[in-house]
Amino acid sequence: ETKTEPKARLQGLNYFQKLTGDDADTDKARWDKLYSKNKGYVFGKDPAAFLVESLPLLPVGRALDIAMGEGRNAVYLAKKGFHVVGVDISEIAIRKAKRLATENGTRIRTVIADLSKYQIQPESYEVIMDFYYLNRSLVPQIKKGLKRGGVVIFEGNTVAHMKYDKTQNRAWLLEAGELRELFKDLEIIKYRELDDGKQVVASLVARKP
Questions:
Q1: Whole-angstrom distance, CA of residue 204 vs CA of residue 129
Q2: Does residue 185 contact residue 139 with C-beta atoms inside 8 Å?
Q3: Residue of 28, 88, 117, 149 with fewest CB within 10 Å of its CB?
Q4: Cα(100)–Cα(51) distance, rounded to whole angstroms?
Q5: pLDDT of amino acid 40
Q6: Measured between alpha carbons, how far is 70 from 75 in angstroms, rounded to an integer?
């Protein structure tokens, strides 16, 4: 059985796609505004269903969370024994992620950075995760950033999702089959494209040989 994201979280994820892609200063200002006006957690505190489902496939060690946001996925892995580094452009999101970690009795390391300029340290991570942030130029860095045997877990909306939300910018959505193609030189452990009636999502777990 495949779990779907709650409606409130889907709305947040859709908003995410509309924000992404502007210049860094504008992007940061919009995200800071979104996170600051909501005293709760825009995307909720629970981890993505695909991350929970795929946990047995992830080698415990150092993990990098790209576009971490408010930390729901980073904190989940930290609680499972991973040493997590979370990167995000929003200082407010980073603060909320740290607070969430404290609430859960764990710790994460955080980095405030523009991901269009961020450099992933080569051969440094057992796990790199990317949920609902598409920057194709980062893909080669993700591959290089994994240690041998390391795993990338990636999930994002595809262009087919536009049937549910026509305001989406196609450039920031995955084409059909694109996610698998982007990581075809890794060992694909799990891949699917799912239409749950609310959104269309591509999900992938792949291992570096």
A1: 10
A2: no
A3: 117
A4: 17
A5: 75
A6: 9
- The dihedral built from the CA positions of residue 168, 155, 46 and 86, taken in this order, carries a sign that is negative
Question: Per-residue pLDDT for 23 more than 60?
Answer: no
3-state SS, residue 90:
coil
For residues 104 and 68, give the distance between their C-alpha atoms in angstroms, rounded to a whole number. Answer: 17
Q: How far apart are CA 146 and CA 120, in angstroms?
A: 9
pLDDT band at 107 (very low <50, low <70, confident <90, very high): very high
CA distance 163 to 133: 20
Within 13 Å, how many C-alpha atoms sit on residue 107's CB side?
2
Query: Partners of 92 in the beta sheet?
Result: none
The alpha helices in the chain, defined as continuous H runs, are 7-19, 24-37, 49-54, 72-79, 91-103, 139-145, 178-182
